[in-house]
Structure formats: C-alpha cells, structure tokens
Write a structure and sequence with these properties.
Layout (H helix, E strand, L loop, with lengths): L1 H11 L3 H20 L6 H26 L7 H17 L5 H25 L4 H19 L4 E2 L3 H8 L2 E3 L2 E3 L1 H19 L1 H11 L1 H6 L4 H27 L1 E2 L7 H11 L11 H21 L5 H42 L2 H5 L1
Antiparallel strand pairs: 1-4, 2-3
C-alpha cells in the first residue's frame, strides 16, 4: 500500500516526465553501446546535434506555443518556404546572403504575428489558423518554383562545410546557432516576464487575465516567436541541404510536437521545460541512429517507435494530471477536517 502511495506521489511530481525522458535517453544510449560497436563514439553523439540542429530550433518555438496552451501546425511549411525564398533570392536575384537571411527571418516573424492576431482578436482556434498557415506557406513554395533550387552562395557553402572542434570530433556552425538559441529560449522562459506570462496563460488563461497579464500581446508574441524559429530553422536547413524545395520538411511540424511532448511539456499547457525539448529532440535522433546502425529496418520504423513513445508519454501525462488532482482533493479534505475539528476559539484565532 505504501509502495502504491509512493508511486502515486511520484506521478504527481511535475518533474516526473522529465525524469522519464532523461532515463529513456540514457537507456537508449546504453542499448546502442551494447548492441553496436562504435555507437558510443563522440562523433556519433555530435552527429545527433548536426543532423537535428534545425529541428531543435523548430521545437524551441513549438515549446512556447504548447506552454501557452496552443499549437502551431505551420512551422514545417514556414521552414520550407524559407528555403525557397532564400534560394530564389540568392540564385535568381543574386541578393547578398546576410540581407536574405535577415529578410526571411523578418517575414517568418510577421507571418507568425498575423496568425497570432487572428487567434486572439477573432477568437479562432489555433489548430484551424495554423492549419491554414501550413497550407498557405506550402502553396507559396510552389508559386516560387515547382523544382528544387540549388544554393551555391559562398556564405551558405562555407556554413555547410565548416567544422568546429577536434580532428576526430566536430560540429557544424548550425549546432552552435541552435544551442545559442536554446540558451536564449531558456532565459526567456524562466527569467523574464514574458516567460512567466506564457506559463500563466497555459495554466489558466482566465486567471492570467484577472492577474492583469498582457494575454493578447503574449499570445501574439508566442506565435511570432514560433514562426521566427521556423524561419531560422529554414536557414539552418538551407545550410544543411544547400537547396530550397517545396517538399522540404514535410511532416516536420509533427516531429517538433513529438519532441516537445516527449521532452516533458504538457500538451494542455502551463508546464514544461525548454531544456527538456533538447532531450526530446535527442531521443528522436537516437531512434534514427539506432535504425541506421541496424541496417535491416526500414526508415518507417522511426515513425512507428515515435508513435509508440507519444502514446506512452501522453498516458504518463494523463496519470500525472489525475494524481495531482487526487493529491489536491486529499489536501482539501485534510484542511477541512482540521477546520471542522477546531474549537470556536481556535477558529477565531
């Protein structure tokens, strides 16, 4: 009985999913190390960051949206549109690379802010608005070109080929950019008024309004930030692929959502850690790496395993919510009994 109560108490802890995520990542690394020679090498670990730098940035923006109680289905299409706009401006119009990067980041931010305004001012569901944004951004890709556009701009090629580190272990500049973005996001989420407002809105939007928090401005800023991250992810993806294409990043928005949820952020909003999203992205990367090392499994097994993990983590989140509710009711009963058993003098005192 005591063991059952201790498990229920552990489930009620807000950091339980984060512990599960970290534990799962360690178990997967241990399995890979035992099963495949060379899996635990430094470069295999660093390749997780190299191959998923753009996804990490994408998932960072998604984390803020989900923390606020929303969802953003447009990020994958915004990423693809960013690659197309950048490739077209670089290769056809021959614009300077830095100007192109600044422009696509600005366009991404404005696109997200417009979606946020529609959600807030017109009281529309985030799912519908961002779904429309997904179709719009993906369609605009094919207005630019139905074919892939190769990028041979010197800056983009340099960013693609540069290696930072040691002779036997290295990362790309995109990894550094992604980790810097992660540090900025952690600061925003946990050490600023904006971050506190995001958590408050996700916990209870009505209560946040009563507290006088800028709910409307925060929601608009959250979607603007998410699209900014999608555009930055598009720039990093352009460095990685050296091309722009309307078919890039199909389904990546779902990978970002999966990474956020597996990283411990509640889909209902109000709880989660930005750092946990990094763990979620690494888990997705480890799954792909294990399948690649095996060599006999289809790449579709990645989706199957991710789907199973999502089921498990959604179930864990639900159990956490139920345990927290039961714990709250028990505390209320105990407080009520103490109040009822108190003498009138004690009650007045």
């Amino acid at each position: 009985m005591r063991q059952f109560l201790s498990w229920r108490a552990l489930l009620a802890r807000p950091y339980f999913t984060s512990l599960v995520t970290v534990g799962l990542l360690l178990v997967m690394f241990a399995f890979g190390g035992l099963q495949y020679p060379g899996f635990l090498s430094w470069q295999v670990g660093l390749n997780l960051f190299i191959d998923n730098a753009f996804l990490l940035v994408l998932a960072i923006g998604m984390t803020f949206v989900i923390l606020s109680g929303g969802i953003d289905l447009s990020v994958g299409s915004v990423l693809a549109l960013t690659t197309m706009v950048a490739a077209y401006l670089l290769q056809v119009w021959h614009w300077p690379a830095l100007l192109v990067i600044a422009l696509v980041l600005l366009l991404g931010t404005v696109f997200g802010a417009l979606m946020g305004m529609l959600i807030h001012f017109f009281k529309l569901q985030a799912f519908i608005v961002t779904l429309a944004g997904m179709f719009l951004a993906r369609g605009l890709c094919y207005l630019i070109s139905i074919n892939s556009i190769t990028i041979d701009n010197p800056l983009f090629v340099t960013m693609s080929q540069t290696r930072i580190g040691w002779p036997d272990a290295f990362v790309s500049p995109s990894v550094v950019i992604a980790l810097l973005m992660l540090a900025v996001a952690i600061y925003l989420a946990h050490y600023t008024r904006f971050g506190r407002a995001v958590y408050a809105i996700g916990g209870n939007e009505h209560s946040a309004l009563l507290m006088g928090l800028p709910v409307g401005q925060t929601k608009i800023a959250v979607y603007a930030f998410s699209s900014f991250c999608a555009a930055l992810g598009g720039v990093l993806f352009s460095f990685y692929m050296l091309s722009g294409y309307g078919l890039h990043a199909q389904g990546t928005e779902l990978d970002a959502i999966a990474a956020v949820v597996i990283g411990g952020t509640l889909l209902a909003g109000g709880y989660g850690y930005v750092a946990g999203t990094l763990t979620g992205v690494l888990i997705l990367g480890v799954i792909q790496t294990l399948i690649a090392f095996d060599g006999t499994l289809s790449s579709w097994w990645t989706k199957i395993v991710i789907g199973i993990l999502l089921f498990v983590f959604c179930a864990v989140q639900r159990l956490m919510s139920l345990s927290a509710q039961k714990a709250g009711k028990q505390h209320e009963k105990i407080a009520k009994k103490k109040y009822d058993s108190a003498t009138p003098v004690q009650t007045v005192a």
